[in-house]
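User: Show me an example of a complex going from sequences to structure tokens.

Assistant: Sure. Here are the input components:
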Amino acid sequence: MKENSSENRVEETLSSLDNIKRAAAPAGFYEKLQERMHSLDPGSSKWFHWLQAGVAAMLIMALVNGFMILQTEENDVAEVDDFKTEYFEPTASLLNY
Amino acid sequence: MSEKEFKEIVLTYQDRVYNTCLGFLKNQEDAEDVAQEVFIQVFKSYDFFLGKSETGTWIYRIAVNKCLELLRKLKAGKRSGIMMSLDGHEQITSFFHPGVELENQENARALFQAIDELPENQKVAFTLSKIEGLTTEEISKVIDKSTSSVESLLHRAKEGLRNLLRNYYEREFIRK
């Protein structure tokens, strides 16, 4: 009797999940997930944006500086060449005197 | 992966993933947390997913692995005896699955406790079959085993549960 009752209970318990319905994800699951993903992504935080902007500005300044230095050096070389040609190098016209 | 694609995947699989996690973890907060981790993992590794399996199978696999990872952590904590009470995971015994009919809740509670005692591979096969309603073939794809292996796992799981429940109810009868 006791054994039968226990066996019945076991079978009842085993079949208790037979008609189980799928539990739905909590409301706003996707929104919460998005929030979590944004907080995990360092690219989305404000300080990171400022840091990115700062590094970009410094790079642009370095590039402009480099360009200016190159330009100045080219001008200097051209000026020295002109001076040399005018005063030290014999030209065809001078030799004709 | 574009945001639109990701949203579509989340909306398609969120209930399946959450329900699977709830079946393993028996705690709604943990299930939601792990389900979110599953989708974060999906987002991160989608570009490396070579499409060798179906998207659903791949997502179930991630969900199962994440749940087992947490269960192992919790089990390790339980052994130390401190983390369990601090984390509040002792509430497993009072877990009621929202999808179980009211008149079956008491029996389902005992069954969920018994499932916890099963070896890991039997637990996975039984949970995917009973809670998530996957077919033997679908389970075989998720856990990368043959269908006959899954059938054997399910059979052994049922036998194991039967023994566990028999012992439990016999002890209960003696107590009464």
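The lines above are the inputs; the final block is the predicted structure for all two components together. The interface with chain A takes residues 7, 10-11, 14-19, 22, 28, 32, 35-36, 39-40, 43, 97-101, 104, 107-108, 110-111, 114, 130-133, 158, 161-162, 165-166, 169-170, 173 of chain B (CB under 8 Å).
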